[in-house]
Every structure is written in structure tokens, then in C-alpha cells.
Design brief:
The protein is an alpha/beta fold. Among the domains are: 78 residues, no CATH class; 106 residues, 3-Layer(aba) Sandwich (Rossmann fold), CATH 3.40.50.150. The chain contains 12 helices and 11 strands. Helix 4 runs antiparallel to helix 5, helix 5 packs antiparallel against helix 7 and helix 7 crosses helix 8.
Length: 395
């Protein structure tokens, strides 16, 4: 399973927009000390109530308290978000719903991981002395299955045929086709890039326009006429350049609508939380995001036959072993100065077949910050010598 962490819990409040860092949240949860030990930019403790929406935490300020004993930094402005009671209560829910993301090809592993996060949140609330009815309800998680879009072929064709202009349906059809490999390739399927590339190709075709057929000087002559090159997309009916600025969002909206329709009330069989994203689209949504930390224990060895061509095309530098490709993919999902942690086979650090991985990935794109050569007996019964390491991308 690939697990990604978005450390930035954004907050909004008065008198200014502020940000609660992961360190602050961990401090309030009792992992790294108390909130009072954190350095703040200004001697003020914001007191109020926390709620959340898709943008993050919304802070309704009720009071401001001076903190003369808290060590300060010289540069203003800024505030330490330390809404002690409310933040302690809300933080586990917010972390599960907004900060932790994961992908696996096995739906059972996905449900077990999501349940484990829910249980960890319950344990935290229990330690805080909160009774069951006092605990916030966790409505969703971001642990998803890499799988094809749901529904039968006839249902997909009917859906795409109804999308206007026609080019939208054609691009969605291509996404459906690419998603058939999701269950084999997992997060190695760069579905977000497939969507962007299809939109870019359709836009380029529209701008350049079809090339007219060659006309004969004497129409009555029986000479063969060259055939116009078959075009990939039907871009008729599009008259405004601005359409292409909105095309990707419209395609994503269509994919989400289709996934929800395809579940047709059966979501309860697969969803652990009521607001979990619909099957298929949940994977696309996670692939489009970028993260602060990516953790993995990927498979190793040669690619499976079904995904071999995809991996060779998408990861030419690391195609020799899927674990090297997973590391490259994970680095591509990071924000600037993000970190990747992995436990894998140790072979990549000395075999000649991994030369490009070492020279072009480790030495140029993401240098190791820590490395442990662990040897045998680390990954259950796997007969492989393991290594654990952390890589950091450039700023």
C-alpha cells in the first residue's frame, strides 16, 4: 500500500488567515509535548470553536488571551492555533478526513487500513476522556482501491454518448479504457496525466483544424483522391478557446457523476464511511493530489504481463523492477521539499540494472537523507534482503 500524508491543515479565522502545522496538531494530541511549548510569532492564544469544510478548518474566534510566558520569535505576524479543547477533540477526525491518503489494489486491505485509522481515532478520544456520544463522527477516509471504473460496457457507452460536446464523451471513453489497468498497475497508472494529455491533444486538434482534402484539377478524371487523415477527436460545435480551460474539470465532473450513478445504491457494500468517494473516481481523485510525505512498501520484481507495456512506457528509467518504478512514481506525487520513505529490496543500490535509478533519480531528483541496510528477515517471510531509506525532493 502507498500511503501519502498532506501535512498542511489549512485554517481560516480572524483576524488573519493562519495555518496549523502538523507539529502543533501532534503537540495537542500529546505526541510531542504541549501546545504551550511551541514557539509562536505573537503573544496571543486564539480561543474559539472549530468546524471544517473542504477548505480546511474554520475558526470562529470568541476570545484572545495573552501568553507572556511563551517564547516568541521576532518576526510578526502570525498566531499559534491552540484551541485546546476543541482542537483536541476535532484533530483525529480532521487527520483521518483530510491528512492521510492511501492506495492499494486489494479492497480488503483498503477496508482494514481505513478501519485501523478509525480505531486509532477512537483510542485517542478514549484517552481524552470523551464518551462515545461526545466524539465527532468520522464521515470519510481517503484510503482507496485502485480499480477500473464500475459498471458494464453498455452502461459506460450510454453515459458517454450523452455527453456534449462529443469530444467530452470521447475523452471519458479513453479514461475508462485506461482505467482497466488500475487493478494491475495500481498507482503506477498515471491516470491524471492521461486525462491532461487527452485534453491537450483534443485542444491542439481543434486549434490546428482538419486539413482539407486535395481537390482534383479536373473532377471528371478517375484518379484516386488521397484520404483525409482520420482524426482522434470530434471537436465540432466548439467555438470558444475558453472551453479548453474548463474541459478537464468537466471531464472530472462527468467521471464523478458516472461513478456515483454506477454504484446505484450499492455503495454501502464497499464504503466504510458514508461520504467516501465513489469507486473508480476515488482513485483518480487521489492521483491528482500532491503530498508532503509518501510512504511505501512496494512489490518488487518484473512487472506483471498485463501492466508491462504501461510500465515500460511510463517509467523507461525504472522499468526493470516495479519497486524502482513505484519509488519514481511516489517522488512525482510529492510537493517541493517533500519526503518519500520506503522499505524495499536492497538490490537497487548496487546492481548495474539499476544504474539509471541511482544516477538519475537518487543523485539528481531526490537524494537520500537516511539509509539502513537491513538484510534478511525483515519483511515477514519474504526471502529478500531489505533496505529502508528516506528520499527528499528539491525545493
Amino acid at each position: 500500500m502507498v500511503i501519502a500524508l498532506d501535512e498542511r491543515v489549512q485554517t481560516r479565522g480572524m483576524p488573519s488567515r493562519v495555518m496549523a502545522s502538523r507539529a502543533v496538531i501532534e503537540g495537542l494530541l500529546g505526541k510531542t509535548g504541549s501546545a504551550g511549548s511551541q514557539q509562536v510569532d505573537r503573544a496571543g492564544l486564539l480561543v474559539g470553536r472549530l468546524t471544517s469544510d473542504s477548505d480546511g478548518i474554520i475558526i470562529t474566534v470568541s476570545d484572545t488571551v495573552e501568553l507572556p510566558d511563551v517564547p516568541l520569535r521576532a518576526e510578526p505576524p502570525g498566531l499559534l492555533i491552540a484551541l485546546a479543547d476543541d482542537l483536541r477533540r476535532e484533530a483525529p477526525k480532521l487527520i483521518v478526513e483530510h491528512n492521510l491518503h492511501g492506495i492499494d489494489i486489494d479492497p480488503r486491505a483498503v477496508q482494514i487500513a481505513a478501519l485501523a485509522l478509525w480505531l486509532r481515532a477512537q483510542k485517542t478520544w478514549k484517552n481524552l476522556g470523551l464518551k462515545a456520544l461526545e466524539r465527532p463522527r468520522i464521515a470519510r477516509s481517503n484510503i482507496v482501491t485502485a480499480e477500473p471504473m464500475p459498471g458494464e460496457e453498455d452502461m459506460r457507452r450510454e453515459f458517454t454518448a450523452g455527453l456534449k460536446p462529443r469530444v467530452l464523451g470521447q475523452i471519458v471513453d479513453e479514461v475508462f479504457e485506461k482505467m482497466k489497468l488500475a487493478g494491475e498497475a495500481g498507482s503506477l497508472l498515471k491516470i491524471e496525466e492521461e486525462i491532461k494529455d487527452a485534453v491537450a491533444a483534443a485542444g491542439k486538434q481543434w486549434r490546428e483544424g482538419p486539413k482539407p482534402e486535395q481537390q482534383l484539377l479536373f473532377p471528371s478524371m478517375d484518379a484516386p483522391r488521397p484520404k483525409q487523415q482520420e482524426l482522434r477527436f470530434d471537436v465540432k460545435g466548439i467555438t470558444d478557446e475558453r472551453f479548453w480551460d474548463q474541459a478537464e474539470d468537466r471531464i472530472l465532473g462527468a467521471l464523478k457523476d458516472y461513478a456515483e450513478q454506477a454504484e446505484n445504491g450499492l455503495a454501502v457494500r464497499r464504503r466504510l464511511f458514508a461520504e467516501d468517494a465513489a469507486r473508480g473516481f476515488a482513485f483518480i481523485d487521489l492521483c491528482r493530489r500532491r503530498y508532503d510525505v509518501v510512504l511505501m512498501n512496494p512489490p518488487f520484481g518484473e512487472p506483471a504481463k498485463a501492466s508491462k507495456a504501461l510500465i515500460e512506457k511510463s517509467f523507461p528509467r525504472t522499468k526493470n523492477d516495479v519497486y524502482a518504478a513505484f519509488v519514481e512514481r511516489g517522488l512525482g506525487l510529492l510537493r517541493a521539499a517533500g519526503r518519500l520513505g520506503a522499505i524495499t529490496s536492497r538490490t537497487g543500490f548496487f546492481l548495474s540494472s539499476f544504474t539509471k535509478w541511482r544516477e538519475e533519480i537518487l543523485l539528481k531528483e531526490a537524494r537520500p537523507t537516511v539509509f539502513a541496510d537491513l538484510g534478511y528477515g525483515v519483511m515477514d517471510n519474504a526471502m529478500v534482503e531489505a533496505a529502508a531509506y528516506c528520499l527528499e525532493t528539491g525545493r
